[in-house]
Design a protein that fits this description.
about 0% strand; mainly alpha; about 180 residues
Length: about 180
């Protein structure tokens, strides 16, 4: 007997489609073919492809942002330790269930052309930046210093992941070294 697919199965397959073919590859028929099921299975879980795309963005916000923040907050007791843990978690090998290291870049590229994706990226970036800034503030950096350090750290994370796709960086060690520098008063 065939196991019934969950919405998460479809979302993961849609992320693979996104990372290999861009947002235009997120199509019910082609994803169903990859999953070896009928399109009817898709419509059991989603009204249409825009609903799947929104579910992808919501899922990304939860898994790649809120779950990470929750893990960091529960796994470290002070701001310095939280920042170090955040760097470790953020630079860990990406989950292949969601397209691996290409997922974040693919979502950012998608956001260049799609207002819903752009809104999600903006919201998620804001949530991530706010969390990191709060850690620097807890370390008694003033507002301007905290904002600057936050922007530098976050931009480096995004850029280092891009460079790593071409073998030009080692995000874990590079970002850790940058964090050590940013934590100096």
């Amino acid at each position: 007997m065939k196991q019934r697919l969950s919405p998460t199965d479809w979302i993961q397959a849609a992320f693979h489609a996104l990372t290999t073919g861009g947002p235009q590859a997120i199509r019910a028929e082609s994803i169903a073919r990859v999953l070896k099921v009928s399109k009817g299975s898709f419509y059991w879980h989603f009204k249409d492809v825009p609903a799947l795309k929104q579910a992808m963005l919501d899922h990304w916000q939860q898994v790649a942002t809120q779950d990470v923040i929750d893990l960091v907050e529960s796994g470290a007791t002070d701001a310095r330790a939280r920042l170090h843990l955040l760097v470790r978690v953020s630079t860990a090998l990406p989950d292949d269930d969601y397209g691996g290291g290409l997922a974040e870049a693919a979502i950012r590229d998608w956001a260049r052309y799609d207002p819903a994706a752009a809104k999600a990226v903006n919201t998620i970036d804001g949530q991530r930046l706010k969390f990191v800034e709060a850690q620097f503030r807890a370390l008694e950096f003033d507002l301007q210093q905290s904002k600057r350090r936050t922007t530098i750290l976050y931009a480096a994370l995004i850029g280092l992941h891009q460079l790593a796709q071409h073998g030009l960086s080692k995000p874990a060690s590079d970002l850790s070294a940058l964090l050590d520098h940013l934590l100096k008063s």
